[in-house]
Amino acid sequence: MSKVVVSKFGGTSMGDALCMLRSAEVSFKQNSSIVVVSATSGTTNALIELGKTAQAKAWSESEVLLKKIRDRHLQIAEELKVSAATRTQLEALFEEKESLARGIHLLKDCSIKAMDTLMSLGERMSSVLFTEAMGQVLKTHGSGKKSELLDVRDVLRTDDAFSKARPLTEEIISLCGKRLVNLRDFKTVYVTQGFIGRTEDGMTTTLGRGGSDYSAAILAEGVSADILEIWTDVAGIATTDPRLCPKAKPIDEISFQEASELATFGAKVLHPATLLPAVRKNIPVFVGSSFESGAKGTWVRKEVEDYPLIRAMALRKKQVLVTLSTPAMLHAHGFLFQIFKIFNDHKVSIDAITTSEISVSVTLDDSALLNKRLIADLSEIADVQVEENLALVSLIGNNINHTAGLGKKVFETIADINVRMICLGASKHNFCFIVSEEQGPLAIQRLHQKFIEGQ
Length: 455
Ligand code: ADP
Ligand code: ASP
Ligand code: MG
Description:
This protein is of the alpha/beta class. It folds into two domains: 5-233, Carbamate kinase; 311-453, VC0802-like. It has 13 helices and 17 strands. The protein has helices at 17-30, 43-56, 59-80, 84-107, 112-140, 169-179, 212-222, 256-264, 275-281, 335-345, 372-379, 406-413, 440-453; strands at residues 5-9, 34-37, 146-150, 157-158, 188-193, 196-199, 204-206, 227-232, 253-255, 285-289, 298-301, 310-325, 353-355, 359-365, 383-397, 421-424, 430-436. The strands form three sheets. Strands 3-5-2-1-8-10-11-9 form an eight-stranded mixed sheet, sandwiched between helices. A six-stranded antiparallel sheet has the order 13-14-12-15-17-16. The chain has a three-stranded mixed sheet with strand order 4-6-7. Helix 1 crosses helix 5 (112-140). It is globular and about 70 Å long. The chain starts with a strand and ends with a helix. The mean pLDDT is 96.
């Protein structure tokens, strides 16, 4: 019996007409049932710039940006020689984009709600073009299948936390069942958008930057897929970011737990939440390059053949360390509760934490500081110190908290780099510490040499 395969292609895999056709060939070869696409590379950033420009600058500046985005997509349309119907769909999206930008300009207000709808146009435009590319490839191969554009918002129901909306799993499963009744006939390849969703009352939302991986996983769960594929610009998950360390090695197989840690602690190759739905439904995930589809790639599974002590490492930049001190903590209880309550009220997530008798240090993404009330509220219960320009270095592997001598090896390797904070013990898969952002890449390069290249 055929398998249900959900394949996601990132921005670079949608970069131009050639990339789209190459990605469509990959989907055909993989027998994908659902193809989830990102916006063409750079388009989400361009749409954000458009929103900000429309809000604050002269209309003529927005017109320049509108034209740039339009021309880029029209060029792909021309190269793909799209049908009149596709051209009409594309024109409607251009019009919507212009109207939205005008509205933002007139109101001088680009709310996160408006920004989500504006950003959604990136994926909506690329998916219209990719449906055409997919159709052409299916026809060339005489497959007897057709491609169909699916508006993902018809199935991907979310809450109304604009810009970081959370999927509503039960509703999504039920909507997928209704909308995709013919999925298991394997006659149709559904092409749809990553990154976006819709609330109960019809508002367009986004799942956060890089969220298309997550969308694909949510859909894979929604249709109980057999395989989830993430096609990107690197041939799988590597021992560290190849941009940081050219000697990074591809990983053939990695467990769900290790890959989740890697994604959460900064490896951009997977959106941090991607594996949650895959783990819930035990769906194996393949990560590969659409540019090199014959390369081995990486399988992420519940169980794998080997469990090395150090499998990979990641760097998460733009970290801040917030230290809260108060004598009230001395021999007292409930202080951590008060602190966490404040972070919870502000919906700020903490990455790493250490405590001493009268102080607590936590690491946060620097975007948390945009919320001025957070620091003000914390200052009401403790002395607050904020250190910026830091990076979180993580070693990912197995049995880390039960291996003697690991700490010694790690800190000998980076003896001349100041370690501002250490987190070890909570997870057997992760050992992380904070260094200055400037020294982060050097720390990773040294550790990679010691633990990966030296093996
Ligand atoms: P896409 O647009 O396809 O989603 P991304 O740019 O989001 O692609 O993710 C792919 C990038 O992730 C790679 O180009 C690579 O630089 C980066 N990356 C970070 N850590 C890793 C890692 N451990 N293995 C592979 N790639 C990584
Ligand atoms: N287009 C979105 C972004 O650039 C989502 C994605 O590509 O995953 O963040
Ligand atoms: Mg990505």
